[in-house]
Amino acid sequence: MFEKILIANRGEIAVRVIRTCKEMNIRTVAVYSEADANSMHVQLADEAVCIGKAPVSESYLRIDRIISAAEITDVDAIHPGYGLLSENAHFADVCENCNIKFIGPSSEAMNALEDKAVSRLLAKKAGVPTPPGSDGIVDNREDALDVARKIGYPVMIKAVAGGGGCGMRVAHNDISLVNNFHAAKTEAEKAFGNGGVYIEKFIEVSHHVEFQILADNKGNVVHLGERDCSIQRRNQKLIEETPSPLILTRFKDLRKKMSRAAIAVAKAARYTNAGTVEFIVDEKGVFYFLEMNKRIQVEHPITEEVTGVDIVREQIAIAAGKPLSIKGDMAPQGHAIECRINAEDPTANFRPCPGTIRMLYTPGGRGVRFDSHIYAGYTIPPYYDSLLGKLIVRGKDRGDAIERMSRALSELMINDVKTTANFQQKILNNQQFRRGNYATNFVEKLLQEPTEKV
């Protein structure tokens, strides 16, 4: 097992990884930007190294500085967390060339799933259904128009790199396709350094369901069940839950079919470590492969809560050459929900709200977990994403979990900073949500309502 691990990330995921490392008696090294000098992950790690100025391009995306920090502190491995360099095959290669273990998939597996367009082709070869769309990257608007007219509007223009909704646009006709094609490419280039986009059919009423998989170096691949991530705004997830209410109430046979498809994609890519295979499901229960996220997901804690599996621990063990501790696929026990608490103002079009947290009270009690890096007196930097923490609850069933989350949200106090908590409470109180009757357009429809329907 490793003796020392560097966490090449920041915020709550860095804290999350440090916690598991401590439980495994592994020493940790934090890297941080000048803006994060007082961040919690810096305080909790055994060692910390400053790697540059506030912008990620001058710190958290600087492979050379991260590797230098790893060599200076003599670490055995690097955990990339999510975002930033977590899906960068070149970074994984550099780690291995420097005899530092990358805690994630191999660069070969990353290249097999190099981008979303390439992933679509791999899924097709594995016999997994994909939405109608382009065969790879679309270079110009004329080709984009040809594809869109062939498959029929509406279509989605999607960046091949990155995630989080960046570089994604919906087009309903030729005019909006031309305008959104260039907007998507520009946004993708700015966010990921890769302006490549592809076109696929946009399913207007869809459900976003993903499967957590784990794969070791011995050929074992298992799934830990599904997560429903349909409560999202502009392709940014706000609330996630497991099991999926869509599968619980309407299409009970989907778990078996979709989990087999997820494992088929992982095996086709010769994937190892933790990964997530994302699907969309239409109103008739037909599912399509979207992409594979080659890292740990923001929403992984809800899977941990219903399976009892520490996914970060499994990641570390797999990277150290150990076999999976799980012998087979796992069915969820109970129900778990996660709310992403962001420093945003829902009344002002979800405008980011950096600032100083004057007072903080986090909820507790049975079945409540808050994964975060914030504390009273912490100043939220304006340079990074607005995630403050993840409020996670577990209940004996979905109704129990909803009530527990509602209670936990009412207890959460983050003073002098606007957050999404009140808006998430509104969602929990909505009768359609409580019935499990929602799709990816739920938040958009809710925002258009003049008053809350309870």
Provide a count of the helices: 16
Low-confidence stretches: none
Please tell me what the overall shape is.
globular
Can you tell me the CATH architecture of the largest domain?
2-Layer Sandwich
Strands, count: 20
Portion in helices: 25-40%
Widest sheet: strand ordering: 13-12-9-10-11-14-19-18
Number of domains in the coordinates?
Answer: 3
Q: Quick check: average pLDDT? A: 94
Straight-line distance between termini? 52 Å
Rg over alpha carbons: 21 Å
Structural class designation:
alpha+beta
The CATH H-level superfamily of the largest domain is ATP-grasp fold, B domain
Reading off the top of the CATH hierarchy, the class of the largest domain is best stated as: Alpha Beta
Largest sheet descriptor: 8 strands, antiparallel
Query: How much β-strand is present in the residues?
Result: 15-25%
CATH level 3 topology of the largest domain:
D-amino Acid Aminotransferase, Chain A, domain 1
Describe this entry's structure for a reader:
- α7 (141-151) packs across α8 (174-192) and α13 (398-411) runs antiparallel to α14 (421-429).
- The chain folds into 3 domains: 4-103, Rossmann fold (3-Layer(aba) Sandwich), CATH 3.40.50; 132-201, ATP-grasp fold, A domain (Dna Ligase, domain 1, 2-Layer Sandwich), CATH 3.30.1490; 206-448, ATP-grasp fold, B domain (D-amino Acid Aminotransferase, Chain A, domain 1, 2-Layer Sandwich).
- By secondary structure, it is an alpha+beta fold.
- It has an 8-stranded antiparallel β-sheet with strand order 13-12-9-10-11-14-19-18, with helices on both faces. A 5-stranded parallel β-sheet has the order 3-2-1-4-5.
- The chain is 34% helix and 25% strand.
- It has helices spanning 11-23, 40-44, 63-72, 89-97, 107-112, 116-125, 141-151, 174-192, 245-249, 254-268, 300-307, 311-319, 398-411, 421-429, 431-434, 442-448; strands at residues 4-7, 27-33, 47-52, 77-79, 101-102, 155-159, 168-171, 197-201, 206-215, 221-233, 236-242, 273-282, 287-293, 335-342, 344-345, 351-352, 360-361, 368-372, 387-395, 413-414.
- The chain has 16 helices and 20 strands.
- The model has no long low-confidence stretch (mean pLDDT 94).
- β2 (27-33), α2 (40-44) and β3 form a beta-alpha-beta unit.
